[in-house]
Write a structure and sequence with these properties.
The model has no long low-confidence stretch (mean pLDDT about 85). The two termini are about 35 Å apart. The protein has two domains: about 60 residues, no CATH class; about 130 residues, no CATH class. It is built from eleven helices and two strands, in the order βααβααααααααα. The protein has about 210 residues and is mostly helical. Helix content is about 70%, strand content about 0%.
Amino acid sequence: MSTYALTYPQLKALDPCKDDFDSVTAALGDENSWDGRLITAAKARAAGVSMDHVVWVASRLALSNTEIERRLQHWNCDCAMRVLANFETRVPGDDRPRAAIEAGRRYADGLIGLAECNAARIAAKDAAKDATKDAAGTAARAAARAAASDAGDAGWSASWSAADTAYQSVTDATDAAWSAAKAAEQDWQFTRLCEWMSDTPPPPPLN
């Protein structure tokens, strides 16, 4: 059985709240149609399940599965890295957010300890406070959240901050342009999450 897929009973066993479970099952369809079949992140997305719900499932699984926790942390870092240029082009020479993303990856892979990771996270938070531009500060916050030790909670925080950075970086100041930029970033994030929550992880992103 795949580590990155669930049966319907296993999904129920994660004990989601009723409203969220009803939303997911409304998208997936009747339980009998999934009898014995595995539900992957990609299949859930194709059925109309939201990214927030897939992140929640991954976060719950990460509590007892260190490999899923590791992958979720790398996804957080991927989200932050995607928008890092919004900080580095506005604040050249400040490498604190990049160092936080790198620390998040190294912590996920067991190469550094919690204290070193936390120090990099705090430095990125300070960089966010020092930034004068909205998109720069939000990009730095995404980096800080990517270095959080709790990959589950950080999953929402890093991805939301990254999507907000894409939104804020649009120079064409129209609601439609801003919304399109955020939606495009979230679409990429969901694709990347499904890749991480599959049997074969994605190749490293270009930094």
